[in-house]
Amino acid sequence: MTNSTKSNSKLKLLFADDERSLQELMRLELPRMGHEVTICPDGATALAALERNVYDCLLLDLDMPAANGLEVVARAKQLAPDTEAVILTGKSSLETAVTALRYGAFDYLTKPCKLTDLGAVLRRVAEKRELTYKYRALKQRLERLEGSSQLVGTSPQMEAVRRMIAKVAPTNSTVLIWGETGTGKELVARALHDQSLRADMPLIPINCGALPENLIESELFGHRKGAFTGADEHRTGLFQVANGGTLFLDEIGELSKTLQAKLLRFLESGEIRRVGDNESLICDVRVICATNRHLDQMVAAGEFREDLWYRINTFEIILPPLRETIDDILPLARHLATRKGNRLGTDDELFSPETAEALRQHNWPGNVRELANVVEHAMILCDQAPIRLEHLPHRLSVRPVSMATAVGPAISIIPAPQATAAKASTTSLRQREIQTVLDALDRHGGNKLKAAEELHISLKTLYNKLNQAASLEKSA
After folding, report:
1. What span, in angstroms and rounded, lies between the C-alpha atoms of 178 and 290?
2. Could you say which of 42, 89, 405, 466 would form a disulfide bridge with 62 (CB–CB 3.0 to 4.6 Å)?
């Protein structure tokens, strides 16, 4: 039996019955079966426990003070639809069984029930839960057909990324993935999840910059009915949905200070608190974060909590931009064409030499995402291999002299036939690019991060331009 199977057979149970002798029996016997159990003396206590925690299965007496077993089942299904329930009743009748099943119960047992019978029912609950998780994981993989966790490329940078993934994936450590927009940060997160011990559990991604603060808090942590205007029902947060699996927080730098504090609390204690709730919930979730922002600079500027930065930066994976892994561009382009249903020919014949060179020479400010769009564009226009220059978007079918599209108006794009003539003007173009960078720095009082954001270039590119400026000054 694998470790995954063993862990999946352990259930978090709630047992509710007003008979003290049964309470004591289950307090001893259920842990011996390998389960964790919370004992409640009546239905009201059980309902209160459901508001605080999520359980895999409920073992409920049908007749209890304050609230009967069926009322507890109905409430449990509202709060956590995946929770199973087994009704225990001394009234053995077909009518009782039908009523229990109609309320959503998994099964029912007549009292007094044998421990062997109870153990058999709980094994079936565990098996159903495991099948549900596997089904969801398989469904998730099928839905992201074009998002396979396969990392393409043989460059030293990509090999280093693969080695780091292999090292950290089997652990529960928090991982921070840094890379420019379009470098494939979610792909790395999926690879980490797929190679982890949680691979059969859910991977839940969320873009922290895509939702306003009031919505993302409810999305992540859930809310109670009536917590705010429009909260007409209880909502389960993504931390609870991802319980046992992985939560991928993309664009973590966009979280507000309030949400940063709540995330820090979870990372330190494993507890979350729904909006409008005074009680905490325990969740077993691995957190993977990603950003294209420099969090250390945000910490220095007071825009990101230093303690949270240390927490999420337990293990850092830095993704190289596509322009720094030139040898990976063509294999990656062929892989993307295959994902799009390549109908044009074999990999070796897919691109003409001129097209292959244009792909290699382009600066790729949008990285892999831009390359995917370029390949799709070319495959729409091309009827038969090879893909030629005229099938590429205009920005690639002409040859850039330098940092194509990287610094906006400072760049001139020269058609390929004029490449020889363009050589003479390379120096002046470079000077114009550098001057554009210097002007942006002046406008932002020397703040390199803000200057880079204005120019739509990476911080590394900006530093390269400043180094070029220093070199030109020395040569002059």
Report:
1. 6
2. 89
How far apart, in Å, are the Cα atoms of 16 and each of 48, 67, 86, 106, 279?
A: 12, 11, 11, 16, 20
- Is the peptide bond prior to 386 cis by the omega test (within 30 degrees of 0)? yes
* Phi, then psi, of 271 in degrees rounded to 5: -110, 145
Same domain, 117 and 172: no
Q: Domain of 306: which CATH number? A: 3.40.50.300
Phi/psi of residue 107, nearest 5 degrees: -165, 175
Question: Among 255, 288, 318, where does a domain finish?
Answer: 318
Q: Let me know whether 389 and 469 are in one domain.
A: no
Q: Please tell me the pTM assigned to this model.
A: 0.59
**Do 248 and 340 have their domain in common?**
no
Whether residue 405 lies inside any domain: the answer is: no
- Give the relative orientation of helices 353-361 and 329-339 as an angle to the nearest 10 degrees: 110
Contact 33, 125 (CB under 8 A): no
**Gap between the Cα atoms of 101 and 108, Å rounded:** 8
pLDDT digit string, tens, across residues 337-378: 887 776 666 666 789 999 999 999 898 999 999 999 999 999
DSSP assignment, residue 147? G
Contact 191, 214 (CB under 8 A): no
183 shares its domain with 235:
yes
- Taking residue 13's Cβ as centre, other Cβ atoms within 10 Å add up to 23
Q: Residue 261 falls within a domain, yes or no?
A: yes
Residue 107 in 3-state DSSP? Answer: strand
Percent helix, strand and coil across the chain, each to the nearest 5? 55, 15, 35
The range of the structural domain enclosing residue 329 comes to: 322-397
Asked if residue 343 and residue 329 are part of one domain, the reply reads yes
Q: What is the pLDDT of residue 129?
A: 85
What CATH number does the domain containing 73 carry? Answer: 3.40.50.2300
Give 272-306 pLDDT, tens digit per residue: 888 887 777 888 999 999 999 999 999 999 999 99
DSSP letters spanning 247-312 = EEEESGGG--HHHHHHHHHHHHHSEE--BT-SS-EE---EEEEEESS-HHHHHHTTSS-HHHHHHH
3-state SS of 405-448 is CCCHHHCCEECHHHHHHHHHCHHHHHHHHHHHHHHHHHHCCCCH
**CA 59 vs CA 38, 50, 56, 264, 377: distances in Å:** 10, 13, 10, 34, 58
Check whether residue 164 and residue 300 sit in a common domain.
yes
Flag whether 403 is in a domain: no
Decide if 404 is inside a domain. Answer: no
305 and 362, same domain (yes or no):
no
Q: Which residues contact 358 (CB under 8 A, 6 or more apart)?
A: 389, 392, 396, 397, 399
Alpha carbons 189 and 242: distance in angstroms, whole number? 14
| Domain count for the chain | 4
- Asked if 366 and 322 count as a contact pair (C-beta separation under 8 A), the reply is no
